[in-house]
Design a protein that fits this description.
This protein folds into two domains: 234 residues, CorA soluble domain-like (Beta Polymerase, domain 2), CATH 3.30.460; 57 residues. Helix content is 59%, strand content 13%. A six-stranded mixed beta sheet has the order 1-2-6-5-4-3, with helices on both faces.
């Protein structure tokens, strides 16, 4: 466990805890007077986002977008990591497992004085905004991947199984992000209960609406692209079968004649004739020519 005081003035202190373990919970609970169960929520791997008004303490548990090391993408744990925010009049306590770029950047802004009128609630607001913006970045990244896959589908002449795998993975990731954002509505709306400016809450809500609509679009587009890919694959397969059918039309009569005369009956036409073999070859050539003329007139390619 790593505990840092990221900012402190006469009015409040911002304390950041990274990689808190179960054995540290009791110590943190006593020091900052926070219920043990809420601290456990911060390190419970499968806990969903939420927000609670605990009277003196406001508690927000959100999930920030993160890269996945799991290729199967089975749950929201594979695309995000938790950030717990405890807010008091004189304290902001953040708890997270991995490095958080927004926390580090906000801490620097506080230290060099570029973040004005700092208080616990505005810090919590900036953290919430940073969490939502991480999904905006994820949405842009997935859109770029989808455009590349779409370009590959239309420019390549043959179907590739890797493309459908890439599409499925992209759709799966978009669906999980959409699910996660849907259940994040509670903590986003919770900011309206905090003593912040209405315009600041509206800005946060607008960011939430933007990323939600972005993933809804991405999810629908990836679904359509999968259907389009399968349709194109079927069309290419049909083209291959069509070519085989055309060749069959040429060789089926010829094969029939060859099989018929392969039975070696004495009564067959031309079998004892001096030029019988050449007559058969001529008939086969005529059949091919007639079939070819027929195919051209029917515009069969």
């Amino acid at each position: 466990m790593v505990v840092k005081s990221l900012y402190k003035n006469d009015a409040f202190e911002w304390v950041d805890i990274q990689n808190m373990k179960y054995e540290n919970i009791l110590e943190i609970s006593k020091q900052y007077k926070i219920n043990i169960l809420h601290l456990k929520d911060c390190i419970n791997t499968n806990h969903l986002p939420k927000a609670e008004d605990l009277g003196e303490i406001k508690f927000i548990l959100a999930r920030i977008s993160s890269e996945s090391g799991n290729k199967f993408l089975n749950s929201i744990n594979d695309i995000s990591t938790k950030v717990g925010i405890f807010i008091k009049e004189n304290l902001v306590l953040t708890i997270h497992r991995v490095d958080n770029e927004r926390i580090e950047k906000l801490s620097e802004e506080l230290q060099n004085g570029t973040f004005q009128a700092a208080n616990p609630y505005r810090i919590a607001l900036e953290l919430g905004s940073g969490i939502l913006k991480s999904y905006r970045k994820e949405n842009i990244n997935l859109l770029e991947k989808m455009e590349k896959i779409e370009n590959d589908i239309f420019t390549k002449t043959d179907s590739n199984s890797n493309e459908i795998k890439r599409l499925y993975r992209l759709k799966r990731r978009a669906s999980l992000n959409l699910k996660l954002l849907s259940i994040s509505n509670e903590w986003v709306n919770f900011y309206d209960k905090l003593p912040i400016e209405k315009i600041e809450f509206n800005d946060l809500k607008d960011t939430y609406t933007e990323v939600m609509s972005g993933f809804e679009y991405l999810n629908s587009q990836s679904t359509s692209l999968i259907s389009l890919f399968l349709a194109l694959s079927d069309q290419r397969n049909n083209e291959s079968m069509k070519i085989l059918a055309v060749y069959s039309a040429y060789f089926l009569p010829i094969t029939f004649l060859a099989s018929l005369y392969g039975m070696n009956f004495q009564e067959m036409f031309g079998i004892d004739h001096e030029y019988g073999f050449y007559w058969m070859l001529g008939i086969m050539v005529v059949i091919v020519i007639v079939t070819s003329i027929f195919m051209k007139r029917k515009n069969v390619k």
